[in-house]
Automatic annotation (TrEMBL):
GO process terms (BP): phosphorelay signal transduction system; regulation of DNA-templated transcription
Keywords for this protein: DNA-binding, TPR repeat, Transcription, Transcription regulation
Family matches, as InterPro entries: AfsR-DnrI-RedD_regulator, BTAD, OmpR/PhoB-type_DNA-bd, P-loop_NTPase, Sig_transdc_resp-reg_C-effctor, TPR-like_helical_dom_sf, TPR_rpt, WH-like_DNA-bd_sf
One of the Pfam families matching this protein, by short name: BTAD
Positions of the OmpR/PhoB-type domain: 1-88
Species in which this protein is naturally found: Nonomuraea jabiensis
Origin superkingdom: Bacteria
TPR repeat copies, ranges: 728-761
Feature: DNA-binding region: 1-88
Designated name of the protein: DNA-binding SARP family transcriptional activator
Length: 1015
């Protein structure tokens, strides 16, 4: 908690060797835990690992032991079976003492006592974390997490200090914190409040002026709205300016580059359990935790970790309680099954963060690529908001930790493991569930079977509960089974369960809990009608996390209506979980124990041929339906000969492009898993065909990671086909995914190899498409002459192939390239031809593309107001087709046209709409274009601070996608319009950003700011 320092008997021990300090710091951060040699090597050398790294590591550990004190240090740092462990009592390490004090504070009920403990914890801080430890990975991966721990404690301690009137203490700590974190505006705001409350109003105002100057000089931004409101409150003499910091009573501050919009308030809870009963003590504990959070003016994050064996009712308790308190979380309720235990791999934090961000309205390429960046963005999105987050079926604390919000939220975690790591480090409150008491078991049976039936044979009900070892899952399944035998006495059912338990005990050596569950499952499964039992078994072959009636019908080879009936039979008997009907989705999923049992029974009842046939049927259903959906979205796409499998008898109804998009989005997880499953079986035809059918959807929705993953598998499958056309087509699709992700080098490489295959195989149409893509890539990169050459050759090939649709796309590309090269007349000639062709063949998407390009060219050619007419036609077509990308591009050009024509400052300006759409679909290039244009609009309107913010955001996005070119000439005209309206100093300041955006200022005819430049 500061510079690395070792004391022995109160005297410092010198550790001059940098690598020894790295080793010691790594061991201390994992005190009393094994640290592998690989981790230590990575911390020391990062990617520059020497060939003798392990022997060098051993030398550093030996020298470290010697420096720490000889034989005693060997006991301090001991060698384990697979690494090293440093054995330290908690009081010997400041970080452990810090966390122990924080945990004690969280467990207390007295505000003064809690504040004292937190104050003692903060006093342990001695400066920047791990100062003097030159490990890039430690500074990157560990230090920010420790710093965030401290800042959470500071925030909590500040709130307590306000209540207790400890203003002078707060000033001291907050001055130290702001010195270490000079750009953390929340800390500055808290310091202003503490200064004002301690009677130092003048110092508070001077502090505000200092931080405002710091932010402007170092970052080029003004203070945020919270600081501005606080400054105004202090100036006005508000006796309690801390109210400004109470985010619960103020709308969240919006940034100028974020157009006003309602925040997404997710309500993701699955339906509750109608027969839920018992757990009164646990429910009371959760209520008390929430009530305690409500008592704080600005509560910290509260985490409750529910643990227990499989089938004990962790999810049922969590969902039931979450429903009961959902209305106390106005900003939404998030739910995510982390699949820590059960079929398939757990959801890794990287993917989990994307799902959570998507639920909060952050989609597509707005989701960062790196896990740490996603985690930080989630905390930013949830800052100042109060949500309930239910993380179900977690594997361990490491899976959960990156998903935690920063403050004000309540996180409920369920896991078979006790989350001791979360309890120690994040202060999670553990809640361990055991089996039901006899009374609770009887109550659950009565809730399902009715009190009359239980009252008639109470001893039989007790025996049935004992046979189910008082486990809620087993009790529920047994009771649901009994409802279908209303004429059977309970004692008969109890005897059957006991007999089944005896039979299974003779077959395996499972523990009491597992054997009892299997006995109940077997008893219930054997009572199913044969078609339902077969459906139960075959569902375990489905690759996705849940399944709908269509895919289930394909698996079992039955009509959809019959599949729906069988699914409902299984759900009614609690052998499947059924989602909330309120969500309007027919999806079913297994409990992990039931999935394991279904696999067991499948192995016993269904031979390899039957299992393979079921998998092939569901893959065929996915392939044919996805192909139909792709045809609706892209009618002109290339079609290879169909696979030999017949089309499904009852394909789902897809109503137009919108219906196709909705179906793919609902089935996306299953579709992506189906590509992987077909690859595992070696069924190459399914693998590459299904990936080909999906790429356009991934493009539209911004699911670039899925796009790349599926096509990497498809690439292997395409190579095995020996068909150069299939391989070339796969390379183009994968290359276009890399283009969308901003990896232009990879995009060019894959298209270059595809071009070779096209030419070797004599595939003229394939070559035309490849060159068309290459034209787009070079245009995005700013290589306009090369873009023109590729599009001209694409046009020639499309003409040879007789493809009018392709000719229209190539003509648009030629027109765009000519415009960028300054040849407006040639541009208009080609674009008008493109428009004529697309209208002739009814290619609405191509027509919209051509109209938008015509608008571009007319605006840069000085056509004035007339230039925007085709843009409004393009906008109407895009909206009619549901083409969000086309809509955003038309709006950007319309917005720039308004700016050039002298229209500024309209809050409903098309640029704001374009920015919102580009973020919604995850198109970073159009986002950067809209931000740059909005910067110029702000410049023309004299809103200089907004100009700075917009252009900085544009710069950030452009760097992330490694490209800024594509509309340079049009932006130049907009900038020429804005320039005369501002003063010299503002112009100079703005141009400094243009330079960083690769915009050039010519010596003559200043400011010619946007000449083309390669990325």
């Amino acid at each position: 908690m500061g510079p690395l320092e070792v004391l022995r008997d109160g005297r410092p021990i010198s550790l001059p060797a940098a690598k020894q300090r790295i080793v010691l710091a790594t061991l201390l951060l994992r005190a009393n835990q094994n640290v592998s040699p690989d981790e230590l090597i990575e911390r020391i050398w990062a990617e520059a690992v020497p060939h003798n790294a392990r022997s060098a590591l051993y030398t550093h550990v030996t020298r470290l032991r010697r420096a720490l004190g000889g034989a005693g240090s060997r006991r301090l740092i001991r060698t384990s079976d697979d690494g090293y462990v440093i054995d330290l009592p908690p009081e010997a390490l400041d970080l452990s003492r810090f966390r122990e004090l924080v945990a004690r504070a969280a467990a207390g009920t007295d505000a003064a006592g809690e504040a004292d403990l937190l104050g003692r914890a903060l006093e342990l801080w001695r400066g920047p974390v791990l100062a003097g430890v030159p490990s890039e990975s430690l500074q990157r991966d560990v230090v920010p997490l420790v710093v965030e721990e401290r800042l959470r404690v500071v925030d909590r301690w500040f709130r307590l200090g306000l209540r207790l009137g400890r203003d002078d203490e707060m000033v001291k700590v907050l001055k130290e914190a702001t010195a270490e974190h000079p750009f953390h505006e929340r800390l500055w705001a808290q310091l202003l409040v503490a200064l004002h409350r301690s009677g130092r109003r003048a110092e508070a105002l001077e502090t505000y002026r200092s931080v405002a100057a710091l932010l402007r000089d170092e970052l080029g931004v003004d203070p945020g709205q919270e600081l501005v409101r606080l400054h105004s409150a202090i100036l006005a003499g508000d006796p309690e300016p801390a109210r400004v910091l109470d985010d619960g009573h103020l709308p969240p501050a919006s940034q100028p580059d974020d157009p006003p919009q309602s925040p997404v308030r997710p309500r993701q809870l699955p339906s509750g359990f109608a027969s839920f009963t018992g757990r009164r003590a646990e429910l009371a504990t959760l209520d008390a935790l929430l009530d305690r959070e409500d008592a704080h003016a600005s509560p910290p994050i509260v985490i409750a970790a529910i643990s227990g064996m499989g089938g004990v009712g962790k999810t049922a308790l969590a969902v039931h309680w979450a429903h009961s308190v959902a209305d106390r979380f106005p900003d939404g309720v998030l739910h995510l099954n982390l699949r820590g235990f059960g079929p398939g791999p757990p959801v890794e934090p990287h993917a989990a963060l994307e799902l959570l961000l998507n639920a909060l309205g952050v989609v597509g390429q707005r989701v960062p690529a790196e896990t740490d960046a996603r985690s930080a963005l989630l905390r930013s999105v949830l800052a100042g908001r109060r949500v309930l987050m239910l993380l179900d079926n977690a594997r361990d604390a490491a899976q959960v930790r990156p998903l935690l919000p920063g403050s004000r939220s309540f996180v409920l975690v369920t896991s078979r493991n006790q989350m001791r790591g979360l309890a120690v480090r994040e202060g999670a409150r553990p809640l361990v569930l055991g089996q039901f008491s006899p009374g609770e078991s009887t109550a659950l049976l009565a809730a399902i079977l009715g009190p009359e039936r239980i009252g008639a044979e109470p001893w039989a009900a007790a025996e049935l509960a004992r046979s189910c070892v008082h486990l809620p899952l087993a009790l529920t399944i047994a009771a649901e089974h009994a409802t279908y035998r209303p004429g059977s006495p309970l004692h008969t059912l109890a005897e059957e369960v006991r007999a089944q338990r005896t039979r299974l005990d003779a077959l395996d050596t499972s523990d009491d809990h597992e054997a009892s569950v299997r006995a109940v499952l077997s008893w219930s499964y054997l009572a199913l009608e044969p078609p339902a039992a077969r459906m139960f078994r075959l569902l375990s072959l489905h690759p996705g996390p849940d399944v709908g009636p269509g895919a289930a019908a394909a698996l079992a080879g039955v009509p959809v209506a019959e599949a729906r009936r069988l699914l409902d039979v299984l759900a009614d008997r609690s052998l499947l979980e059924r989602p909330s009907r309120e969500q309007g989705r027919e999806r079913y999923r297994f409990h992990d124990l039931l999935h394991a049992y279904a696999i067991e029974q499948r192995a016993l009842a269904d031979g390899p041929a039957e299992r393979a046939a079921a998998v092939r049927r569901v893959l065929n259903w996915y392939l044919h339906t996805a192909s139909r959906a792709a045809d609706l979205v892209e009618p002109t796409r290339r079609r290879f000969p169909d696979v030999t499998d017949r089309a499904p008898a009852e394909p789902p109804a897809l109503e137009g492009p919108e219906g196709a998009l909705a179906w793919v989005e609902e089935e996306r997880a299953g579709l992506v898993a189906a590509v992987a499953l077909s690859a595992e079986h070696g069924w190459d035809d399914f693998t590459w065909r299904l990936a080909h059918a999906l790429w356009r959807f991934f493009l539209i929705r911004g699911h670039v990671r899925d796009w790349i993953d599926t096509h990497l598998r498809a690439l292997d499958a395409a190579r095995d086909t020996g068909d150069p056309r299939v391989l070339a087509e796969t390379m183009k699709n994968l290359g276009f995914a890399y283009w969308r992700a901003g990896h232009l080098a990879e995009a060019l490489d894959h298209h270059g190899r595809a071009l070779v295959l096209d030419q070797e195989s004599g595939d003229g149409w394939g070559e035309a498409k490849t060159r068309n893509h290459l034209g787009f890539i070079h245009d995005r990169a700013g290589h306009f002459a090369e873009a023109l050459r590729q599009q001209q050759r694409s046009l020639a090939r499309y003409r040879e192939a007789g493809d009018l649709c392709g000719q229209g796309r190539a003509l648009v590309g030629i027109g765009n390239a000519y415009r960028q090269l300054g040849h407006h007349s040639a541009s208009m000639v080609h674009l008008k031809r493109a428009l004529a062709v697309t209208c002739e063949i009814g290619d609405r998407w191509g027509e919209s593309l051509a109209l938008t390009a015509i608008g571009f060219t007319r605006l840069t050619g000085g056509y004035g107001a007339e230039a925007t007419r085709p843009l409004y036609r393009a906008l109407a077509i895009s909206r009619e087709m549901g083409d969000r990308w086309g809509e955003s591009m038309a709006l950007i050009v319309i917005g720039l046209g308004r700016l050039i024509n002298g229209e500024y400052g309209d809050p409903s300006h098309p640029l704001c709409q374009a920015l919102a759409i580009s973020r919604e679909i995850g198109d970073r290039w159009s986002e950067s274009l809209a931000l740059t244009a909005m910067g110029f609009a702000s410049l023309a309107s004299g809103r200089n601070a907004e100009t700075t913010r917009y252009l900085r955001r544009a710069l950030t996005v452009s760097h992330e996608i490694r490209c800024i070119a594509g509309a340079d000439d049009l932006l130049h005209e907009a900038f020429r319009t804005a320039m005369p309206r501002v003063g010299h100093q503002t112009l100079v300041s703005t141009l400094s950003f243009h330079t960083r955006l690769q915009l050039r200022l010519a010596a003559v005819d200043a400011p010619r700011a946007l000449g083309p430049s390669p990325c």
